[in-house]
Amino acid sequence: MEKFERLTGAAAPLMRININTDIIIPINRLISYKRGELGPWCFEAWRYAAEGVEIPEFVLNKPRYRHAKILVAGDNFGCGSSREHAVWSLSDFGFRCIIAPSFGDIFYWNCFQNGLLPIRLPENKVKELAAEIELTEDASMTIDLKTLSIATPTGREIAFTTDPERREALLEGLDDIGMTLKFDAQIRNHQSRDRKARPWIYRREETSRVARVLILAGDGIGSEIVAEVQRVVEWFMAKRRLAIELREELFGISAWKAYGELMRKETWDEIVAADAILFGAIGSPEYGQLPAAAREVDQLLRIRKELDLFCNLRPVRTLAALRACSTLRPDVIEGCDLMIVRELCGGIYFGTPRAREKLADGSERAVNTCMYTTAEIERIARTAFELARVRSGRVCSVDKSNVLTETGGLWRDTVQTLRDRHYQDISLSHMYVDNCAMQLVRAPKQFDVLLTENLFGDILSDCAAMVAGSLGMLPSASMGPLRPDGGRHALYEPIHGSAPDIAGKGIANPLGAIMSFALCLRYSLGLPQEADRLEGAVAAAISRGARTADIAQPRDNAISTKTMGDAVLKELEQTQ
Ligand code: IPM
Ligand code: MG
User: Fold this and answer.
1) Using an 8 Å Cβ cutoff, are 99 and 119 in contact?
2) Which sign does the torsion angle of CA 8, 14, 16, 18 carry?
3) How far apart, in whole angstroms, are the C-alpha atoms of residue 63 and residue 189?
4) Catalytic annotation on 92?
5) Which of 423, 365, 426 is nearest to 392 (CA)?
6) Which residue, 343, 448, 336, is CA-closest to 390?
7) Annotated catalytic residue: which of 138, 163, 425, 434?
8) Atom of ligand 1 nearest to the CA of 462
């Protein structure tokens, strides 16, 4: 932008009031002409009788004003729309300064952005000035922005004021961006310090590569249901421009058959590098035939533990159309919507010592240890409280502190203390797990966020499946802590397991797995609207009668896994 310090040139008087931006530059001209080409069309309606035929009386057509650089105008100049072209056309005409009693607000600030100086003077002064211009032979004036003074055509001095920051910008020839860039070095300095202190804020920038999503179908019905998930993922890639890198690895028995390992090193590397894992299921009678050493470590538990997927979310929602599938009375489950927040990396699942040993008398003794630390409890409780804040503000924490006075006691105390310190807006209740199991089937609607430790969460979530109608319907998300690089490991799986009894028959319900991908869209890919779209499509498919065997009534025609996938895809198409 050209600097504005001192301007000398002819001034033209145009003492009409309310000159609006449409008069300054008509809308049809901004469609066909660009900045730099708008000068000929400035005040078009007043300047020309027909295209190119000038009206000689119009002030800017008079020879002495044709090259005016200063415009002296009536009240409320530049009112009307926010169109920046108004300022551009005046500049293109040759104006660099406008003097008026008042301006349209947006026009006024647009002037500074584009190197045009707007000066507000009291109305009587503007009128005097206009009269003086008309009377003097030489309409020439000088505007000095440094000294904030105007030298009129007769040599009088008029002082004016303006916004000090805008004045500085004009003097330096800078617009807002230019003014900000003056602090470029300081901004960069601050950012590099801030990037180290709060890396998560810069996450998007640093991970602007597309997200990697890894498919692990696993055992049993895993491959059948995941095939449907894959079709849904591909639909989002093709139709909703979902940008992800989709990969796939063999895992479990199929990997054993192909490579002689349940999870080979390459698969592990993929797991660690993935932004999200779409998991099918684990478990098969065939594990019984594997060498004991291969069976020693449960590979799913290994992933959970090594990726520190401590936070397991299991949403349970009753779909109106599925009320009849549940063994619970429709009025008990209708409208139920709860979230189980299960701790997934601690407790008896991982505690040591654990052993099974022979005793002297030939019998055996087995030990498992339930163990929790304050930090482990706090981080999962925090998640529950945060979720409650965006839900109904209620958390029910589950424990067995009347018997397991150590782990249960620590659980209850820690959750309560955290609530009292940081989440006073949340209403927290505590419930023994046995009572909770009963309450879940007696009156599930009393719950919103259910916070539980690992083993209780496993049991209660199967129990809550009856609230949703079928275990086949329930999705889950398992997430790790935020890493310093801003990423977060996450695994999405249906909670139903591998169902070996129906594996290979093509009749399993893929909806739990498909809904797990919806959670992936929401939590890992940052696309909540696409998640809603998918959940909506699943609900629509069901309400139109699509039923796999697990959710079919005797009068229903149960459809296959693949046909259920088709039904969801068809509904997705409808959302387009
Ligand atoms: C679940 C499953 C797992 C668990 C098994 C497969 C290890 O039942 O996710 O609920 O017990 O956590
Ligand atoms: Mg389970």
Assistant:
1) yes
2) negative
3) 55
4) no
5) 426
6) 448
7) 434
8) 10
Name every protein residue with a CB atom under 6 angstroms from any ligand 1 atom.
282-283, 300-301, 458, 495, 497
pTM for this prediction: 0.68
Active site residue 458: yes
How many Cβ atoms are within 10 Å of 309's Cβ, its own excluded?
21
281 CA closest ligand 1 atom index? 6
CB under 8 Å, gap of 24 or more: what pairs does 268-274 form?
270/214, 271/214, 271/216, 271/303, 271/307, 272/307, 272/489, 273/212, 274/212, 274/213, 274/214, 274/247, 274/489
Q: How far is the CA of 92 from the centre of ligand 2 (A)?
A: 72
Can you tell me which atom of ligand 1 is nearest the CA of 493? 9
Does residue 219 carry a catalytic annotation? no
Single out the catalytic residue among 92, 458, 523, 550. Answer: 458
| Cα gap 573→576, rounded to integer Å | 5
Tens place of pLDDT for every residue, the chain, 576 residues? 889 999 999 999 999 999 999 999 999 898 888 899 999 999 999 999 987 799 999 999 999 999 999 999 999 999 998 889 999 999 999 999 999 999 999 999 999 999 999 999 999 999 999 999 999 888 999 999 999 999 999 999 999 999 999 999 999 999 888 889 989 999 999 988 988 888 777 766 555 678 999 999 999 999 999 999 999 999 999 999 999 999 999 999 999 999 999 999 999 999 999 999 999 999 999 999 999 988 888 899 999 999 999 999 999 999 888 888 889 999 999 999 999 999 999 999 999 999 999 999 999 999 999 999 999 999 999 999 999 999 999 999 999 999 999 999 999 999 999 999 999 999 999 999 999 999 999 999 999 999 999 999 999 999 998 888 888 899 999 999 988 877 899 999 999 899 999 999 999 999 999 999 999 999 999 999 999 999 999 999 999 999 999 999 888 899 999 999 999 999 999 998
563 burial via Cβ count (<10 Å: 0-12, 13-18, 19+): middle
Active site residue 400: yes
* Long-range CB contacts for residues 104-110, cutoff 8 Å, separation at least 24: 104/20, 104/21, 104/76, 104/77, 104/78, 104/79, 104/80, 106/78, 106/82, 107/21, 107/77, 107/78, 107/79, 107/82, 108/78, 110/78, 110/82, 110/84, 110/86
Cα angle, residue 452 at apex, residues 450 and 456 outer, rounded to 5°: 115
Backbone angles phi, psi at 139, to 5 degrees: -80, 15
- Ligand at minimal distance from the CA of 497 is 1
Catalytic entry in 400, 423, 492, 550: 400
